[in-house]
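Handout, section 3.2

Students often ask what a structure token actually looks like in practice. Rather than define it abstractly, here is a full record for Transcriptional regulator, TetR family. The first block is the sequence as you would receive it.
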Amino acid sequence: MPNLEASFRALRVLHTAKDLFNQYGFHKVGIDRIIAESKVTKATFYNHFHSKERLIEMCLTFQKDGLKEEVFSIIHSYRELMVFDKLRKIFYLHANLEGLYRLPFKAIF
């Protein structure tokens, strides 16, 4: 079970960092704050992520995967909807800058 526990700690760091980055931005959140709020050791952090840049990259990948899953969910879950209505739902998903696109936009702008 050590691998499962390590994966859980890495996910906890990832979720904590994502929330902090969304709230304060990439430049205003340091590794020490992420470590403290994730309740992991510095060694654990560096063992999983190696650097803040790598953590940011993984957070963005996590968000991108979430967006993909949401689009696939709209396509496959709403079988009763017409194609136009599905496209509208997908558009609104992408137009909501406070949703899953918030973190990628913070990285760009």
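Discussion prompt for tutorial groups: The chain has one domain: 2-108. How would you have guessed this from the sequence alone?
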